[in-house]
Amino acid sequence: MRELTVKDAINEGLRQCMEADSNVVLFGEDIAGGQGRDDHPGAMDAWGGPFGVTQGLCTQFGRERVRDTTIAEAGFFGAAVGAAMVGMRPVCELMYADFAGVCFDQMMNQAAKMRYMFGGKQRVPMVMRTVVGAGFRAAAEHSQTLYSLFAHIPGLKVVAPYSASDAKGLMIAAVQDDDPVVFLEHKRLYMETDTVDEAMTPLPLGKGIVRRSGDDVTIVAVQRMNLFALQAAEALAEQGVEAEIIDPRTYSPLDEEMILGSVEKTGRLVVVDESYPRCSLAADIAALAAERAFGSLKAPIARVTAPHTPVPFSPPMEDYFIPSVDRITRRVRETIDY
Amino acid sequence: MASDAPVDWMYRTLFRIRLFEDRVQELARTHAVPGYLHTYLGSEAIAVGVMAALRQDDWITSTYRSHGHAIAKNVSLHSIAAEIHGRTTGTCKGRGGSMHISDFDKGMLGALGIVAAGPPLALGAALQERRTGSDRIAASFFGDGAPHNGVFHEAAGLAKQWDAPVLLVCENNGYAEATATDWHLNTDTVADMMSAYAIPAQTVDGMDMFSVYEAAKPVVDRMRAGGGPELIEFVSYRFSGQYEGDKQAYQPPEEIAEAKKRDPVLLARERAAQMGLTSDALATLEAEIQQEVDDAFAAAERDPWPEPEDALDEVYVDYPEGQIRYA
């Protein structure tokens, strides 16, 4: 086992999927880079996407399988849906989740509905990779998480990994899955490291992971918020509070049993989600516990989310926008002291 | 003329569409089926002629005006009628209805309710077939309103760059919903728009199924032999409204009357003798098709409705037990 960054773990997962199956084809804007200048040294794989996640794949697999597209998301997402139905396993990169508006019809009305609406014969085995998250000083149109926008749509599976090992295993599962999977990569996690299995081993979609065990309070943390929740748990431990941290990893399907089991054990729930609060994953998970674990609750469910504003640019404002370790610690403390 | 055309199949298919849609109009008038209905009356020759030029295993995308395409793709009348009636025996097990008549096993990638949704899907299918060494091509049917939508242009641009065997079939039936084509097009024809992509394009009579076939066949042959995308705009006329129940207040009666002088069925009858069909043979064929249509709807109307909880199928693969509770 070696340490890999999230970025390299995703790259390795994609590489192994492409080696295993020639029908795995990548589409995206500058996912290789340098198209049209292939005779220029250094042009090939000049980019690998804006964060370099797919860098090197074009050199290994060629432009036929790592397809740089024009800036036409509806066009190439739609093409991927059509190709997926006839045997391809396309992996499309949407440069930022914030751009979902320009190809959302292909995601929510075509990819998501083919299997259902046409009676079950059609399958759309495609992956829609995209980048989410604040903390890059990238302002309101390059920083959103939009988890619930995707998780709201029946027929889309939604994955948002925190660790490098999860990112690799879930990417492999996403590519191998016979339904469309939205794979959300957090830009502030790309350089985080973890020990990652060299084997090509998929992780099941719909299974969460307990990141830290504890008996006093359940913290359900969404993607990057695991990092902060783990730090908050250390601070809380010094106060004698043992938090259990659950990372659902996938949000559709959602590992409801793991969340409910933990809440039944601890009697307290704090959900930490970087998204806007209204109609969010935090709201959904809180509703789940309120509906099905009410009898176990010793305190009101608490949510730690961003405010209901667009993501601001200026560092003091953006830092205020993102849930912090301190906010999580305080909300947990309030729940304990209720 | 049209020496290699599958004449018998073309006449049968033309009558299948016309008589089927006549029945759909009747059902609409009596509110005998649920949901929105969009008939293909007036454009029958396009589906017949293009599908005669395509192979059964070529892919197509259809629109919410899907009955004619499905019939011409040899989807059974019974399964189409059953889908319109929302029965389990329908092409989509009752999940799609009239706007989404599509049978993957017959080469249909989908019948889509969103204008211009089809071209990129056909592009993707064409790309995959070409890159895996297959000679199957993909055709996308859309109306004259679709070329105003951005995704049409994205698909056209990528199709040219990838040199994919996509046949863009524009059914110019005179109206985009309730807006006249001669008003909404900035160019004289849809074909004119394609010069921006260096995609070969032509505008052809869409009322005579043999003209349609003659135009489509060489294009299909070029693509099958390795060619890239082309567009054919077929000019027809929408005899029905945008949907059944549309009062057609925007369609001048004299315009409809004029268009009906070139009704695709009328033109086909006029050409029957030339195609070696006697009027007796034609009458026999028409009676046979009427019986097929009657049988299809009679069977569909006897077919079972889905169980309410059938609504829960086919959303996910292996959705974990116990996670969905609705009752």
Catalogue the unreliable spans of chain A: none
Ends apart, CA distance between termini of chain B:
63 Å
Overall SS class of chain A: alpha/beta
Strand arrangement in the largest pleated sheet of chain B: 2-1-3-4-8-7
Per DSSP E runs of 2 or more residues, the count of β-strands of chain A stands at 14
Low-confidence blocks of residues of chain B: none
Largest sheet of chain B: 6 strands, parallel
The residue fraction in helices of chain A comes out at 25-40%
Mean pLDDT of chain A, to the nearest integer, reads: 96
- Give the C-alpha Rg of chain A: 20 Å
Share of β-strand residues of chain A: 15-25%
SS strand fraction of chain B:
5-15%
Overall radius of gyration of chain B: 20 Å
Tell me the series of helices and strands of chain B, N- to C-terminal: HHEHHEHEHEEEHHEHEHHH
Main beta-sheet strand count, sense and barrel state of chain A:
7 strands, mixed
Annotation field: number of helices of chain B: 12
Order of helices and strands of chain A: EHEHEHEHHEHEHEEEEHEEHEHEHH
- Protein chain pair with the most extensive contact, residues per chain: A-B, 48 and 51 residues
Principal-axes geometry of chain A comes out as globular
